[in-house]
Automatic annotation (TrEMBL):
Coiled coil: none annotated. Keywords: Kinase, Membrane, Transferase, Transmembrane, Transmembrane helix. Pfam families: His_kinase. Residues 346-357 have a biased composition (Basic and acidic residues). The chain crosses the membrane at residues 33-51, 63-83, 92-114, 126-145. GO terms for molecular function: phosphorelay sensor kinase activity. This is Sensor histidine kinase. Residues 161-236 form the Signal transduction histidine kinase internal region domain. GO terms for cellular component: membrane. It comes from the Bacteria. The keyword Cytoplasm does not apply. The lineage of its organism: Bacteria, Pseudomonadati, Pseudomonadota, Gammaproteobacteria, Chromatiales.
């Protein structure tokens, strides 16, 4: 199975997250920071050109200002990127004070070089430096605020995911323990098997790892279904269909299928008076895996859930794969069907950790 909580890899992830939270610095080497700086540079060049008196060569003036501002911005960003690792290890005061000073000093040097070749008016030296001071402080403040907001968003997403792992449904735990207690008297061997399956489920719920293979996810699903079949008896049948090939070894976010199957049992199978059925079908479609979870609905409508199981899994898929993954849930006659499209390649790092609302798939 997966590494136990508290393993060295888990501790390393916690330490990395703690280091990121301590430092207020943005990622000066990142593509997003580069894009933001370039956008600010373009807006600044346009603003200075439009505010400049006279009706001379407008495009030439814009090109000259853009060249000046782009050179200062890109070289300053390069310097900060090279110093980033040292800055993160330094005191907090240095991390706040030094980054704005780099573009200010850089502006002074470029202004001096432009004056030496008569491309800049020496009388504009002080106004240019004054503008550089103001814009450097404003730009760095913007980058700091943007970085703080993004890190807070990621921290909230991590906290919600940890809450999801810590909140297996109490009624499932109580019912399972009652089932085990009854089996201890009638079928001790079966009681031991159910206990081991239950232990695997809680190990996965409390494990801090974000991903595992599709095969491991299906093993958890099988363990959960064995527990429920022991509790519910022959009140439902299970139809399974998935390939036994290398596609089962693909990485995927943990606890994606399990909450959906648990949701199908609670809202579709358990309330039914007659015998229900649950179908799980997985097949390959080019570069994606298609997963379909289909369950019968009870004759008398059960209390409707809030849909947060599907919503939370959808957010986890979007967090891991962006727009390349999808989840659709709908009623189909006397059945409820959930369909997932999961890419067969997991990015090394999520594009974003956006998410709103409750991300706890176990809270329905």
């Amino acid at each position: 199975m997966r590494p136990e909580p508290g393993s060295s890899s888990g501790n390393e992830r916690v330490d990395e997250g703690r280091a990121d939270r301590v430092s207020p610095l943005p990622d000066f080497c990142g593509a997003e920071t580069l894009l933001r700086v370039l956008m600010l540079a373009v807006l600044l060049a346009l603003a200075i050109t439009l505010l400049r008196p006279g009706t001379g060569d407008w495009l030439g003036t814009l090109a000259l200002y853009a060249l000046f501002i782009f050179w200062v911005a890109l070289t300053s960003l390069l310097i900060l990127c090279l110093l980033q690792r040292l800055l993160r290890r330094g005191p907090l005061t240095l991390q706040i004070v030094l980054p704005p000073l780099v573009p200010i000093v850089n502006t002074a040097l470029v202004q001096h070089a432009a004056e030496s070749v008569q491309l800049a008016d020496p009388e504009l030296r002080l106004p240019v430096l004054g503008i550089a001071v103001i814009l450097s402080l404003v730009a760095m403040h913007y980058l700091y605020l943007q970085t703080a907001w993004e890190r807070e968003t990621r921290a909230v997403a991590r906290a919600r995911e940890q809450a999801m792992r810590a909140r297996l449904r109490p009624h499932f735990l109580y019912n399972s323990m009652n089932t085990i207690a009854g089996l201890c008297r009638t079928d001790p061997a079966r009681a031991e098997e159910v206990t081991l399956d239950l232990a695997d489920l809680f190990r996965a719920a409390f494990n801090g790892a974000d991903h595992h293979t599709l095969r491991e996810e299906l093993e958890l699903v099988e363990g959960y279904l064995r527990v429920e079949q022991t509790r519910l008896g022959d009140r439902f049948r299970i139809d399974r269909e998935w390939p036994e090939d290398p596609s089962l070894e693909q990485e995927m976010p943990s606890l994606v299928l399990l909450p959906l199957v648990e949701n199908a049992i609670q809202h579709g199978i358990a309330p039914a008076r007659g015998r229900g059925h649950l179908g799980i079908r997985i097949h390959r479609e080019r570069d994606t895996l298609s997963v379909e979870i289909r369950n019968s609905l009870p004759e008398v409508a059960a209390p409707a859930g809030t849909g947060t199981a599907s919503d939370a899994v959808r957010l986890r898929l979007r967090h891991a794969f962006g727009d390349r993954a999808s989840l659709h849930a709908q009623r189909d006659g006397d059945e409820f069907v959930v369909r997932l499209q999961i890419p067969r390649t997991l990015p090394d790092r999520p594009d974003s950790e956006r998410g709103e609302g409750n991300t706890d798939p176990w809270n329905c």
